């Protein structure tokens, strides 16, 4: 079913981010959001960590596509954990008809050898499997998947991972490998692809996001949106935050308020409690001020932003559905 989103026409959603920002969580929630309302979405993992299985509380995923979740309002999420050796066997069968010979070569460590000599070849294998799922059609000529979400490597190497044509340029000028990489590149660099970044409102993740977006654009790759994860909403009015940052908060007045509210016994207890509370308020105000600066830096990229609140109870299945709903409400899916 069609619906208006910020990414109409995009069928491959690549999700990257600095380690610790919740990249896999966001990718999983995005898959649920995209599948809602009766759509079929494939969630792909390429780093061998079995992060998808963990987040959906499943056994380790084999190298096959299988349904792992039902989306809100109907729709299915399938998952695939890509194994480079199996991808190599598929590649050899597809282009050379050598699957049996390929298994023998695998036992000899040919995949490790090939990817050591040409590191970009491993990326071609896994991105190739992903883009094949994007292009795949059924017997009636309809797309098998409405969208594919790729839980990609971290921000620091996302451009190299996706820029497969450049990575294999020294490996093959002609032939199946070159043709394969060109096919992959044709999907990755097309309007059907968007590379989304996951960040926190902290200096290092935001700077990596800014650098990653700049590198993508320089390489002619499609930068998508920015998912700001684990956002904590301030419970204090802006005027209070401003006063705390400027050091103009009256500890005595705060102590009187605590005592009047029955939260402290006696003047000494109220004063001690007020000083501790003021320390917390100042720290909160400074963090809020820093987060505002990081938001402003992200605005300058000109990319859509989506803020996902910190889940008080941690990330479980219920939390994933909550994040998926937030994404849909903000137009991300």
TrEMBL record:
It comes from the Bacteria. InterPro entries: ArsA/GET3_ATPase-like, ATPase_ArsA/GET3, P-loop_NTPase. Residues 12-176 form the ArsA/GET3 Anion-transporting ATPase-like domain. This is ArsA/GET3 Anion-transporting ATPase-like domain-containing protein. GO terms for molecular function: ATP binding; ATP hydrolysis activity. It holds the Pfam family ArsA_ATPase. The lineage of its organism: Bacteria, Bacillati, Actinomycetota, Actinomycetes, Streptosporangiales. It comes from Nonomuraea soli.
